[in-house]
Amino acid sequence: MGNSKLYKGSLNTIILKLLEGTDKMYGYEITQKVKELTKGELTITEGALYPALHKLEAEGLLDVEMAKVDNRVRKYYKLTESGEKETVNRLSELEEYIRNMETLLNPKWSIE
Question: What residue stretches are annotated with the Transcription regulator PadR N-terminal domain (predicted)?
Fold first, then answer.
């Protein structure tokens, strides 16, 4: 991947969007889904993922569910009702940001 700093500000939105389409996911599953969807271009490290998950949980946007899998306790994350609403808001903001960046990078000059 080129510049991971460009993605850093979007990590929370990426997590919310992934959880929007599922019942629940655990951390490693989130990292693998991102890797799969971006064909390996974006790799989320545990050092970036878990602080983001904890922050989203503290903001009341995620619920955590513990389950025992293969004699290990696994934390599953899912959106709260507030998280669902916030996902819509953040995706809208991100789409607007992308449109503005496209306009700035590829301006369509008109002669009037």
Answer: 15-86
* pTM greater than 0.85: no
Distance in angstroms (rounded) separating the CA atoms of residues 92 and 83: 14
Domain boundaries, the chain: 4-105
Q: Which amino acid is at 36?
A: E
For residue 13, is it left (φ>0), alpha (ψ between -120 and 50) or beta? alpha
Q: Which residues of 71-93 are buried (b: 16+ CB within 10 A; e: fewer)?
A: eeeeebbbbeeebeebbeebeee
Distance CA 36, CA 34 (A): 5
Q: Which residue has the tokens 């510049």?
A: 3
Architecture of the domain made up of 4-105: Orthogonal Bundle (1.10)
| Cβ contact 8:48 at 8 Å | yes
The Cα–Cα gap between 77 and 22 comes to: 10
Give pLDDT tens digits for 5-62: 667 778 999 999 999 989 899 999 999 999 999 998 888 988 999 999 999 999 999 9
